[in-house]
């Protein structure tokens, strides 16, 4: 992972202090810290993730497989910064603020969204709705952008913006879901506290990056709770595969509505207001606007039926027509994430995990009001327990509230690599859900 070559306003005075201190240290090796009379910052924790022990990380968790990265669409940094800021993802914001400056971006644009060109400011409403309540997007929102007089967007430009916004909303989910730590020069990436006697700070021990941490220390109760967890899940998968009972279309629709309603009752364990810092909130408008379930405030959101508008039959071709080759890239990216598997479940090998992956993907789309007519939503409650649902909803809808406790509470016997696969699946399912609403609105405007 790259480090910034220049301090930015988002890092604040601490960034300048850290940079200058490191320069002083490198050129004054003969002087001790005491002689200099200054405090030297050190990393807040070891390793790139605060969730995953450093010894189990081959590379940074956000360093995805090459085949995955080749299909990632990256272009205009100002879109990216707006999108990442919506979820208070300082890691991505700081990273791309530095990229923006390196390629000659106007620093004034970073003082606040109102300092950016009017055409880019016009994206604020679209960015807000897509990130938090995409089901509210209408063809009128699209018309406003395409007919904004001298600040209007073309259809091709708008598709480009939508792809970038949705990608970075979902990438923020992945970043928080993997507990990716800020870079050393950023706020939250360093500390001035002295190390403990064992040379490991509290963060390292909690993260499993210190020799003082062992699973055995968690006690017998945890071991008891873990016993048979995977076997129970595998047995449920087997029973569902062997079940010959076929539900009627009416029953299938009822099960979807029931699951959608139940998803609204899943409340994150850390359901409290997260107030963004000024460094982050200046990059987007209306900081108080966030995720809200369909039924809040008396809203009634009709079901989005995939048989009426799907990625495969509608969205893919629209993107490819207006943004050549990108439809194919996105389709391959979705397929890679959906089919990604080790064919393992914890210590069990040669396991067909397709049923489980489909349940996860469809549950996320269900939370966005999207229904697959050929899927039995009764399977979701059989395969996804409440702690997993809490993690999924938090990471997908309010990723900035994701905690280490949530990450550890689901699939406790599974490998961290398997959980990272889950995070990729959640990331792409979320992106496709946002895209479906945006592309359907564009299609309705065009017709």
From TrEMBL:
GO terms for biological process: cellular response to L-leucine; cellular response to leucine starvation; negative regulation of TORC1 signaling; positive regulation of macroautophagy; regulation of response to reactive oxygen species. InterPro entries: AhpD-like (IPR029032), Sestrin (IPR006730). The keyword Transport does not apply. Signal peptide: none annotated. GO terms for molecular function: L-leucine binding; oxidoreductase activity, acting on peroxide as acceptor. It is found in: Cytoplasm. One of its GO terms (cellular component) is nucleus. Keywords: Cytoplasm. Pfam families: PA26. It catalyses: a hydroperoxide + L-cysteinyl-[protein] = S-hydroxy-L-cysteinyl-[protein] + an alcohol. It comes from the Eukaryota. Belongs to the sestrin family. PANTHER family: P53 REGULATED PA26 NUCLEAR PROTEIN SESTRIN (PTHR12474), SESTRIN-1 (PTHR12474:SF3). This is Sestrin 1. The lineage of its organism: Eukaryota, Metazoa, Chordata, Craniata, Vertebrata.
């Amino acid at each position: 992972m790259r480090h910034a070559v220049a301090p930015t306003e988002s890092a604040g005075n601490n960034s300048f202090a850290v940079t200058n201190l490191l320069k002083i240290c490198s050129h004054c090796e003969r002087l001790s810290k005491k002689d200099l009379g200054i405090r030297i910052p050190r990393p807040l924790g070891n390793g790139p993730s605060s969730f995953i022990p450093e010894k189990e990380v081959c590379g940074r968790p956000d360093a995805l497989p090459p085949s995955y990265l080749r299909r990632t669409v990256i272009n205009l940094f100002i879109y990216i910064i707006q999108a990442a800021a919506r979820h208070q993802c300082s890691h991505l914001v700081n990273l791309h603020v530095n990229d923006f400056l390196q390629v000659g971006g106007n620093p004034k644009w970073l003082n606040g969204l109102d300092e950016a060109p009017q055409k880019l400011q016009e994206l604020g409403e679209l960015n807000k709705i897509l990130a938090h309540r995409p089901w509210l997007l209408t063809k009128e929102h699209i018309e406003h952008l395409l007919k904004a007089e001298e600040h209007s967007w073309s259809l091709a430009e708008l598709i480009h913006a939508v792809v970038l916004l949705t990608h970075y909303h979902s990438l923020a989910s992945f970043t928080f879901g993997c507990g990716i730590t800020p870079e050393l020069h950023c706020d939250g990436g360093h500390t001035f506290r002295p190390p403990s006697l064992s040379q490991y700070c509290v963060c390292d021990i909690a993260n499993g990056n210190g020799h003082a941490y062992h699973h055995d220390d968690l006690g017998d109760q945890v071991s008891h709770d873990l016993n048979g967890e995977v076997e129970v899940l595998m047995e449920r998968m087997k029973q569902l595969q062997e079940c010959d009972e076929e539900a009627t279309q009416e029953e299938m629709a009822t099960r979807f509505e029931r699951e959608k309603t139940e998803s609204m009752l899943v409340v994150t364990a850390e359901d409290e207001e997260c107030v963004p810092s000024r460094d982050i909130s200046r990059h987007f408008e209306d900081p108080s606007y966030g995720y809200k379930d369909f039924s809040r405030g008396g809203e009634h959101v009709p079901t989005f039926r995939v048989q009426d508008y799907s990625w495969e039959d509608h969205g893919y071709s629209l993107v490819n027509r207006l943004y050549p080759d990108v439809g194919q890239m996105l389709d391959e990216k979705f397929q890679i994430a959906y089919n990604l598997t080790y064919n393992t479940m914890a210590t069990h090998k040669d396991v067909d995990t397709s049923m489980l992956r489909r349940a996860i993907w469809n549950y996320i789309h269900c939370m966005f009001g999207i229904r697959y007519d050929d899927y039995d939503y009764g399977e979701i409650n059989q395969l996804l327990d409440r702690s997993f649902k809490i993690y999924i909803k938090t990471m997908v809808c309010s990723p900035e509230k994701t905690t280490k406790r949530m990450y550890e509470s689901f699939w406790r016997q599974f490998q961290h690599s398997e959980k990272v696969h889950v995070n990729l699946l959640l990331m792409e399912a979320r992106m496709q859900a946002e895209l479906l609403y945006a592309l359907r609105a564009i299609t309705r405007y065009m017709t």
